Amino acid sequence: MQVFYDRQSFSEYINALKEQNKKIGFAPTMGALHAGHISLYNAARKENDIVISSIFVNPTQFNNPEDLEKYPRTIEDDIQKLESSNLVDAVYIPKVEDIYPNGMERKHYDFGGIENEMEGAARPGHFDGVGTVVEELFLQVKPDNAYFGEKDFQQLKIIEKLVDVTDLDIKIHGVKIHREESGLAMSSRNMRLSEKEKEASSVIYKTLKKVDEWFRVISIPEIKKRVDEVFHRDDMELEYFLIADENTLKEVDFFSTDHSYRAFIVVNVGKVRLIDNMHLN
Ligand code: PAF
Questions:
Q1: Are 150 and 276 in contact (CB under 8 A)?
Q2: Which residue puts its alpha carbon closest to atom 9 of ligand 1?
Q3: Nearest-angstrom CA–CA distance, 220 and 211
Q4: Per the annotation, does 152 bind a ligand?
Q5: Which ligand 1 atom lies nearest to the CA of residue 57?
Q6: Whole-prediction pTM value?
Q7: Among this protein's residues, is 259 annotated catalytic?
Q8: According to the UniProt record, what class of enzyme is this (predicted)?
Q9: Residue 188 gets which letter from DSSP?
Q10: 208-236 residue pLDDT tens
Q11: Domains (ranges, CATH) in the chain?
Q12: Largest CA distance in the chain
């Protein structure tokens, strides 16, 4: 596996691949890699000649400076994990100035309104920051296919819109949520949980499974009441739970027959903000 620490050598590598008409699969990350990331490269390996990873903790998508500061940075370990996965041909680890040569500014995007729902409302500027870094990475990596985890389902939808609004010819693939045995969705933030908190956090997945059982059986207000009750506890705080139309990501308060729905949840366990979601069957 090749490791590139600067834009110049990386773009020479990419241009050579493009000249040879290689099909490139790409999954960007912010590091602190876990099995969920590896599942992205597994998916990419099946349909591309070359699989590329990137590691860059993107400052413009953090609305909370403490969250940025505390974000785990485990670069040596990450390189080791990518290497031993045997799935990745190259990893790009750019410096801030490789991504933001003109200063660390967020672009402003119109994603048709989905950027204002849920995480967009809870984290002002977050999706503009994600759009800015992913657009720049797409321009530098020039992938044919790009892979994003469904854990950040709203992000996945935003990226689908991003390639539309920027006219980039890249196919976006969503990859199913990878879970711990307990059901807890894998996330780089899980590293910041104690063993006890980790164990307790499995209630998030268990609750989503209950919601799936209650889907179309009891009303949404009643489902929300039950979820609220589950989180009447001292060791974690429910930030939001809602059921949204899977396409518009707008919260709904009743089910129509011909729409798909997904439940979304955010829970704060100590200072760690955990997000999860589930398609309702
Ligand atoms: O999902 C992430 O890790 C990040 O939001 C991404 C897509 C790598 C952009 O920084």
A1: no
A2: 130
A3: 10
A4: yes
A5: 10
A6: 0.96
A7: no
A8: ligase
A9: G
A10: 999 999 998 999 999 999 999 999 999 99
A11: 2-175 (3.40.50.620), 188-276 (3.30.1300.10)
A12: 59
